[in-house]
Structure formats: C-alpha cells, structure tokens
Amino acid sequence: MITELNIKQIEKISKALGDPYRLKIMKIVSNNATCTQCCDVSAEFNLAQSTMSHHIKQLIDADLLIADKEGRNLKFVVNKEVCTAYADYINSLVL
Amino acid sequence: MITELNIKQIEKISKALGDPYRLKIMKIVSNNATCTQCCDVSAEFNLAQSTMSHHIKQLIDADLLIADKEGRNLKFVVNKEVCTAYADYINSLVL
DNA sequence: CAAAAACATCGAAATATTTAGATATTTAAA
DNA sequence: TTTAAATATCTAAATATTTCGATGTTTTTG
C-alpha cells in the first residue's frame, strides 16, 4: 500500500520534526529493535513528564510514530510508511 | 559530493518546512524550470512584501534554496543536495 | 540625478509553542 | 483494596514565530 501525503500532513510532519527533543525521540525509537515506551525515552531527557508526553503526542499526531497502549504503558514504533512517504515528497522537490 | 547534515541542520530544515507558505514557495521554485525571483513568488500570495522576504530568508538560511543576487533581483533555485540529504536522513529512520 | 523597482531590516502586535507543576486516569502490584 | 507506576490533561508562564507597516538600501530607468 503506497501512502500519499497531502500538504497539510507534510506541514504537520515537518513541524513535528522541527524540535531537537522530538528528533532525538525519533532516533531513539528508530534505533530500538523492540517497541519503545515513554519511560524509556524519558530516561534520556531532562524534561518534565508532562513535557515528554506532549512531545510524543505530537509525533503520534503527525503519524510519525505508531502507538499501542499496553496496560499502563504506551509502546510505539516508527511509522515506516509515513516516513518513507514524507521522504518521497521531499525528493519530489528535486527534479 | 555527498552532503551529510547534522542534527541542527535537520531541525532547521524541518522547521523551515513546517509552514504552509514556505512549503508552497518550495513547490513553486521546484516547478519552475528557470530561476525564480521573490516578486514571482510574491505574486502568488496575499502577504506583505516584508513577510514574503522573511519566509524566503528562512528557506535560504536552512539551505533549502540557493540564492543569487542579480542586480536588484534575488534569484533562487532548490538546493538539490540538501533536499536529497534531508530525505536521506528521514529514510535512515526507517531501518 | 530623481524616481521607481526589488528586496532587506526594524519594531511592535498578534498568535503559537514550549515547558513545568498540579492533578486526573488507568492499570498493575503488594 | 490500598498503593504505586505510567501516562494524560489542564493551566499558566515563558519564549518563539508570524505578520504587517514603515523605512532603508541598492540598482535600474527615465
């Protein structure tokens, strides 16, 4: 299934990636073979829990992360299709 | 020559792309076979000249556009290397 | 050389984002 | 079943971004 992103989604994804914490979260999740959890990620940062929650929410809302609530934990992985579709859009600017 | 972007550049590029006007500017420049100028772009928008100038500056500062001052005109094209390098970074999140 | 064209810069208002603390919710553990 | 752990939500302050109008600079044109 090939995902095509509209311009509003491109904007939202770009905005979500326009923050150092959120970029670092993406990298951590990407580097993790297994699903990551909020608390795993939080451990790497010096931010309030509510702030972390906010950042992760933005990545999920932008569909960059796919989340799955398991018990009291929130697990997530990189949304490969959306990342690829976003990269495709960027590449389409280069003709 | 292969461009490698550091994380600060990735952040700056993402931020630059996280705005509907700037995304539209990128598309206009991308679609133009020849160099684009500020006044070409401005004609498509309902924004003050100073605002357009500000948006274009952000794209140039993020190295997404390459600018060249010719007389009183500012001409620019898409920076293909940086766009490609950015897309590569995004793809690197998908393993 | 005076006027206009193209763009940049500055200052200020409006708006959006980031952040933390307090509190709420949901689930697991004791 | 009380307690603790993991996350979410709300509010408010701090900070950043967007936008415009006014003005400045540089270059071309009359």
TrEMBL record, chains A, B:
It comes from the Bacteria. PROSITE patterns: HTH_ARSR_2. InterPro entries: ArsR-like_HTH (IPR011991), HTH_ArsR_DNA-bd_dom (IPR001845), HTH_MetalResp_TranReg (IPR051081), WH-like_DNA-bd_sf (IPR036388), WH_DNA-bd_sf (IPR036390). CDD domains: HTH_ARSR. GO terms for molecular function: DNA binding; DNA-binding transcription factor activity. Keywords: DNA-binding, Transcription, Transcription regulation. The keyword Transcription regulation applies. Residues 2-95 form the HTH arsR-type domain. This is Helix-turn-helix protein.
